[in-house]
Every structure is written in structure tokens, then in C-alpha cells.
Amino acid sequence: MKFLRTWLTPLLILIMFSSATGQVGAASSRDITIYLDGVSLASDTAPYIKPKENVTMVPLRVISEGLGASINWSQAAKSVTIIKDGNTIVLRIGNKTAQVNDSLIGLDVSVEIVSGRTMVPLRFVSEQLGLNVEWNQKLQTINLTTNHDVIDPPGNEQPGTTPPVTEEPPITGGNKAELRGAWISTVFNLDWPSKASSGKIETQKNEYIKQLDQLQSMGLNAVFVQVRPSADAIYPSNLVPWTSFLTGTAGKDPGYDALRFMIEETHRRGMEFHAWFNPFRASTGIETSILPENHVTKMHPDWIVKFESTLYINPGIPEARQHIIDVIMEVVEKYDIDGVHLDDYFYPTGETASKKFNDDSTYKTYNYNQISNKGDWRRDNINDFVRDLGQSIHGAKPNVSYGISPFGVWRNKATDPTGSNTKAGITAYDNYYADVRTWIQNGWVDYVAPQLYWSLSRNEVRYDILADWWASEVKGTNVKLYIGHAPYKLGTSEVGWNSASEIINELKYNETIPEIKGSIFFSAKDLLKNPLGLIPLLQSYFGS
């Protein structure tokens, strides 16, 4: 969701640059210019090409900061850690492998330090952070785009040319009663509000109104808005501070209740508003001095665990879990929301033998049930949280829907015979400690929305195999199944995402499974970019 999940759970793939007519030759540092969405990226260390390997090396910091990734440099380990959307990537100087969550992937070229800057293979970064890349051999320019529409850098325009238009046949499908939603991320200003609108009330309101109208015009009838990006709030709260993503300053009052405004505008259009909470992330960075005094990291430092460059609220502490429930219930009781929605950020992924989420003392102190396996204890903590939150919500407002969007693979069949026939590098059960099956079987949630962010042709994690598996899990229960789709992957080099018809084909497949009651798309901004012409296909399919 995490682009979040944005973006969503991308896999690390190493690729190299070559021109359309042959290999990229060696070029001097001053010859290469990088553009991000048409804007030149300045750097005191210029990109360069490794001629033997034909790999373009770029400064990591320039690109990653532009996309909101969290970076941590370890001088002792000579390594850089990138964290984004639940994925953790570790690159080490001189090491031709990269650690991605729990997997090691080979690199053609190792990370290098040049003029004090960490240089990495460009396509490595672009694949991980959702960038498209265009190399211009003649102009020695690299054009990076965060959407799927190519933006030409200066001097690369081709006037008089018109891209071919492919006629698509009319597509119809979908059930008018089904849920058709979009995730709207507020963390890092990914979907709303824009960074440019920081502190500008009317601009933020107009951005949301425009976004809502555009989503509805596609045929969508619900939004899942991130109201708690990181132990903070987009609304006035007695328990947590204002988020920095409204004003640029954590704890600063933006001058209006953004949540109430968004709910009213959403309901005015007859759409559902689901309040999306990130439960256990305390801070997207480790610097707490910039956080207000009523932030959880200041109020309860004993609840906080640092892992990589992110701070987490320890799920193993009962009082900490209850605090999060209290925060969510404040919204349930004060606002006319249609649902409470949680993403899959429970325990962080990416632990290794030498790099652990430090909850040993918590395990000893709060292991009331004497659970011998720490993994089982962690899952028990999350189970308690999921159950208790559901009871609180339904006790206060029985009509408020309560659901969770877990990682798309519960467990692989190779690990558990009852798991899906997949080969995912991480799983909800083993890495996030989310035992979704238990939630479903006990009826603790009203729905699950697994993030099936893979194509129908991705053999390791095939969409249809996973959709069938999740449908079998909810069959015979009162738990609904929605599917999380990945329009953000359209136009990327991952298998199956070279046509917008991939999304439509997934929706058509959903029609064959009665247990699937709707879809949610990650994320709003990616839909609005109309990747590969998706919008008219959705409008045709939904009959909007």
C-alpha cells in the first residue's frame, strides 16, 4: 500500500541500459543529464556509464528523495538501506548482491561511492521505486517519469508526430452493487494533498473535490482515505497530533477538519468513505526531535521499537494495542464513516539473523499464554488486536464495515500444504505475522481485501490462482472478499503489465467467482494518470 503499497509490493529486478540501436558507449560525467518528470535533477555527483557492463550509475539520494523513499546509510556496514511501501532493500559497497526483504538478488554492478555519494544502477532504482526510464543516446539524457506517460526533456520533442490510437471494443461487466474503491494515501503526500498545497486550505479542498469527481466518473463508488499515516491524524484528535502532511509541520493545526470535509464531499456524491488507518507505524523516520510533545514517541518511548529507519509501536504491549484501538474508536464515534480499514503494516518485514525487530524483552514480559514460539506469539498479539478492535467498532456502530487488506499471499504451498500454489518471497503469515485465516474463520472482520498485485501471467504469484485461493478461504463464512488491484504497475517491465487490458481481464475473472464482492485500486493517483489508456476501459466496463 503501501506505493505506496503505492505503491504497492514491487519485486526487485536488476536491468541494464542499452540504446535502441546498440550498446550505450562510455560517456563522461558531464555528458549525461537526468530528468524526473521533465525537471532536471541537480547533483554534485553526475551520473555515468560503466562501459564494460553497459550500466548507468546514478546518485541514489537524488532519485529516492524525489520519490519519498526512506534511506539509512550505515558507515560501519558500508551499506545503504531503502524502505518504501513495506519493502526493504539493502545494498552494500563491493557486494554484487542486494537483499530484498528476505531474498538475495544478484547485481551486475556493485554499489559505489563517488565524491561522497552512493551510486547505484539506474534501472535497479527505477524498477524499485516505480519509475519509467527513457535513454536518449544522441542527447545523452535519461528521462525518468513517475507516471506511465513519457515526458520529454528539453530538446527531445518530436513535433508533428501523433501516437497511434488503438481502438478498443466496448467492454461491459461488473455488478452495480459491488464495491469499487480506490486507496488515497496521505503519507508523503502520495495521493492527497499535494506537497504544493501544504497549508493551503482551499487548494487542498479543491484537489480532493477534483479527485473525487474523476474517480466517480470512472465508475468507482468508494474511497479508502488514509486518515492515520503515521501515529498522527488528518483530523483534530485528543489522542494524537496533527499530521505534517497537511501543513508541512507535525502537530500544526491546518485550520480545518480535513476528515469531516472529505466525508461530506464523498457522501454528497453517494459514495462510501472508509477511514484507512496505519496501525503500528510510529514514524517514517527516526528523528523524533521534530515531532510534537503529544506524539507517541514522546509520550510512550517504551512502546517504540526502531527497525531500519522507521519507528514502530510495539504490537506485543497490550497497552500500546489498546491505545491504537482508542485512536480508531475516536474516529468511529465522532464521524459518519462507512468503514474502518487497516493496511498490512503489522510487524515489519526484512528481518535477518543479524537484524531483528527488538522485542525479546516484550516477549518475556507479555507472554501470558506461555507461547513457546515467538512467531506464534507475534501472531497472537495481532489476533488479539484484530479481534478487540472489531468488537469495539461493532459494539459502538454495528453498521460500520471493518476490514483489512493483507499481503496477497497468506502462505506458500511449499511451506504449508493448505497455502496457495505460489512462490512468494514473503507471506502475510510468516513475515507480517498476520494470520488472516484465523480472522476469517472467527468472523472478526467483515471483509478482507488481499493485495493481488500480480498479473494473470506471473507464474510465481499468478492472479487467478490467488483469487481462487482467497475465495475458498471466505466461502461459507460471512466475511466478504474484495480484491486489491495494481494499476500502478501498468507500463512497468514486470510480467503481464504491458496493456491496460490486464486490469480488465482481472475484473472479468472476478466475475466468475461469486465470493468476490468488489475491487479496490492502488492508488488514486495512478488511476488518474490513465496508465496505458485504462480510464476509458474502466468507464466502459463499469458502464459509467
Automatic annotation (TrEMBL):
| Domain Copper amine oxidase-like N-terminal: residue ranges | 36-143
Does the keyword Signal belong to this entry? yes
The reply to whether Signal figures as a keyword in the UniProt entry is yes
InterPro entries per UniProt: Cu_amine_oxidase-like_N, Divisome_Glycosyl_Hydrolase, GH, GHL10, Mao_N_sf
Give start-end positions of Low complexity composition bias. 157-173
Pfam families for this protein: Cu_amine_oxidN1 (PF07833), GHL10 (PF02638)
> What name goes with this protein?
Family 10 glycosylhydrolase
Q: Which organism is it from?
A: Paenibacillus segetis
The upper taxonomy is: Bacteria, Bacillati, Bacillota, Bacilli, Bacillales
